[in-house]
Amino acid sequence: MEYGETFAAAAELRSTEATAALKDAASFEGPAVLLLAEPQAVQGDDQWTTFRYDPRREASGEAAFVANGSRIRREIEAFLARENLLTLVAKKSVGTGADTDAEGGDLGQGLADASKTVTILYTSDTGHAEECAKAVARQCRGGGYASSAVRCGTLDSFDVSALPSEPLVVFCVATAGKGEFPGNGRGFWGKLSDRAAEFTGALGSVKYTVFGLGDSHYWGKGTEESKVNFAKPARELDTLMESLGAQRFLPTGYGDDQDVDQYHTGFGEWKSQLFSRLGVDKVDGAGGDDDGPVKPDEVIKTETQQLRGSLKEMLDDVGTGQVPFQDTKVIKFHGSYQQDDRDLREERSKLGIENAFSFMIRVRLPGGYCTAEQWLAMDDICGRYANGTLKITTRQTWQLHGVLKRDVKNTMRGINRACMDTIAACGDVCRNVLCTSNPSVCSREMMEEIMGHTYAIHDHCLPRTGAYHEIFLMHGEEMAEKSQVLGSTPIEEEPLYGLTYLPRKFKVAVAIPPSNDVDVFAHCVGFIAIIEGGKLLGFNVTVGGGLGFTHNNQKTFPRLADVIGFCKPSDAKYVCEACLTVQRDFGDRTNRKHARIKYTMEDYGPDFYREQVEIRLGKKLEPERPYKFEHRGDQFGWVKTNDGLWHCGCLVPIGRVKENVRTGLVKIAEELKGCGGFRMTCNQSVLITEVPEAKKAVVEQLLAEYKVPHSEETTVSGLRRNMMACVALPTCPLAFAEAERYLPTLVGRLESVVERCGLRETDIVIRMTGCPNSCGRPSMGEIGFIGKAPGTYNMYLGGDFVGRRLNTLFAESVTEDQIIELLTPIFGRFANEREKDEKFGDFCIRNGYVKAMTAGRHWWTLPNV
């Protein structure tokens, strides 16, 4: 009805109204939409309106809209009131001069009120422009605009043909790639550009304003490329709209990520002017759940009833593939993220259907260990409910991708039946605790003892809420019984977390020298095992690591942890609790970009943090004990431990268990039921563990049959053995570029180079992520790549081999061919000029390719590129 020449009707099945509507729809020359409902389904439903809307009736002076019943939805009543007023105005001559009579003047004012409409269109990849657009929509609705008079959607969801009839359009436009429109705006831009000649002069009655988002330093501070590409789509749209005759309602505003509060600074200034011009500046636009985020995370956490929210009900809503915004925050605490397939956004937008939403589900697996039976269960689940693959993550566990909303509960129940869960695998809590997986670093007895402390730390820091079980596991009579006994949903006390949990995620790792496979200094809290004479003396404690940052935001940076002391084994879980509660109480809850423990440590200093930990612990930490890391890669091939059991490290490229590797590992798991297991590694590979002598030969045969890489010959090269990447596109909403799908291709080209240089078997740590959130720990690679735009990366060199030093920016915004061109001569020199046992990262620093990154606070000032 909003778009005019469309026939629309709603009726109950098998009624006379339905028959008449079908006949009228069949004879209507334009598009027709019919909604037919079972009478029982709509009986007593106040939202149901039986009606017919036929534009042909207007030609004979009849109303186009006819309601067949007395119940009319509020939204339809508002629409009809506006339509009737506009029709009345159209039939009268309303003067605009001094001779306008009172009736005409009143009618003119009525027209002004009735035409108080605004269309808000956005295009965004990461959601920032969408948030701006929805903030405008909320303010307008709160300021007196009828809900139906405020339309908010993506550029591509808007029919370009309707643009000349729009009284006011507000555009919020982000920037993608090198000055390109994001995926959900390219279609609109293409159509408007192609039809420019047709629209020239046709937009004279259209008022518009544009808000553009970008980063003025994204392609280098002061460079011509940054100048040209800054908010380029917004500037191009503004220029085109003006050239087509549209009237600029307000000067174009710009949100620059280089400002103090990033794009929020410019948006605050621009929206103040906009709201004043619209007459909605005197109200608080806090309503409108359909417009997405309206509350900060800290408020959302307090209002979720200990992480319950409305998830239980919303996951059962089959009308949409997504959950409400606030529930997307809640579900993280239960080990899941809502995502969508970005490869399909543009196509689905053209079809007018919602994004291809799905859920990533991460299993809680301290130390990365599972039984053979649990491996088989996860394989069955990934085939039944997910995309048919298992993803081994840098957090030493599995992730499932592509789980549809309707299958989330069944997936969680399947995981639970295998004696696992996803509690606290994500969210602002202590997440999955890592532990060194290399079986050759200590005796089996020592490994089991340290794994015991890993479990103790993890279990001690788990949230206590029963929300997970209520949402995903309890249903039917079981849930009814709980409600009956307790009277209502209980609110458990959270002795560690309180109502607001932590300011941000909290990551913990346990390392066993000489292996630093867990990258212990990258974590919020770390424990370095000190072993002497076959006895575990205790742990050195590290605090303050974290690698995420924001491109060109110099208030953000990666940081490696400081060693603050030593604790006895029995104190480890209490030390972790103390570190956690210090962060709970002193972490920044006003700015999530400054909320990680690394900034708390940077702001207050190691001495303050140690003192706070000691106060809560009730005793002093002892001085740090000596230790030495020698490597951080995985063990590949077979190794026998002192208990007579065998263990075999297998390479799983980028951690994606699929195709022949998936089949081979399932066959091995079937052989090992009741006697063996698996350990995920922090480098995204897997260790087949606890293999009895009698089973070794058959496991070896299966590895060969299914071509599972597990030796120097089958793992191809030192680069491939040490490559790591995050998932990135197409499912990660934050990714600027490819990572998992691309790094193996890049490594393939680099392997040709190192082969020619005689470096095929030389271990070089190479890592890539699609954005600077750094899930693949790229800033600790000897070679690191962080995505900036499709096919474009910042390149970093100089991280050390054992994970004690961050790398340094070497080249900005490089493409694949440039990467090969830059690295080829460095590999050549490394092959010919390296010192004995010198590693690639150290060589790069010694030869002046980059300076050594001594502290994360120098991340932005040290590079000279």
Account of the 3D structure:
The chain has 865 residues and is α/β, with parallel strands linked by helices. It folds into 4 domains: 1-41, no CATH class; 115-278, Rossmann fold; 308-475 and 491-617, Sulfite Reductase Hemoprotein, domain 1 (2-Layer Sandwich), CATH 3.30.413.10; 718-858, 2-Layer Sandwich (Sulfite Reductase Hemoprotein, domain 1), CATH 3.30.413. The protein is built from 28 helices and 30 strands. The strands form 6 sheets. Strands 5, 6, 7, 8, 9 and 10 form a 6-stranded parallel β-sheet that branches. A 5-stranded antiparallel β-sheet has the order 11-12-15-14-23. Strands 13-24-25-22-21 form a 5-stranded antiparallel β-sheet. Helix 26 links the parallel strand 26 (723-725) and strand 27. Helix 21 packs across helix 22. The two termini are 58 Å apart.
Quick structural overview:
It comes from Alexandrium catenella (Red tide dinoflagellate). This protein is an alpha/beta fold. It folds into four domains: 1-41, no CATH class; 115-278, Flavodoxin domain (Rossmann fold, 3-Layer(aba) Sandwich), CATH 3.40.50.360; 308-475 and 491-617, 2-Layer Sandwich (Sulfite Reductase Hemoprotein, domain 1); 718-858, Sulfite Reductase Hemoprotein, domain 1 (2-Layer Sandwich).
